[in-house]
Write a structure and sequence with these properties.
The chain is an all-alpha fold. The protein is built from six helices and two strands; from the N terminus they run H-H-H-H-E-E-H-H. A two-stranded antiparallel sheet has the order 1-2.
Amino acid sequence: MLEMILDKHVIWVIIGLGAAAGVVSKCIVNVSLKRLMRGAGNMGKSTHPFMRLVRAKFEHACMVSEKVENVEAFVDKYLYEYRVAGLKLHSIQRMEVTAVGICMAAGELFCIWSGRADASIWCLGSCVCCNTLYVTYIR
């Protein structure tokens, strides 16, 4: 079975799928957060559904004479539940880190199972490093 995994390049496919999932989730998060920032730029006139929800909840809290002492926590509470493409935004952000972990684990398995230090291992390592840097540090 180990020979089949190495011969059929299953690990390369796993690394490719992990990298693709990380990049797609990174793009979804970036686009969603840019839309939220644009909507938050002018809260009074914003037509973004999330901004209208937060504004309505804040106005309701102020109307019933409750003080909102920590506005950041108030917004974070609703931002944690915000959904994009049917998934919570927080889950998509965690998917980026998970994809990097999958790529790194698959790369390590390939290096351990193959037992040779030729150019393909260095290529694999550089692909894993590039994916890690892109998904975690480039915004």
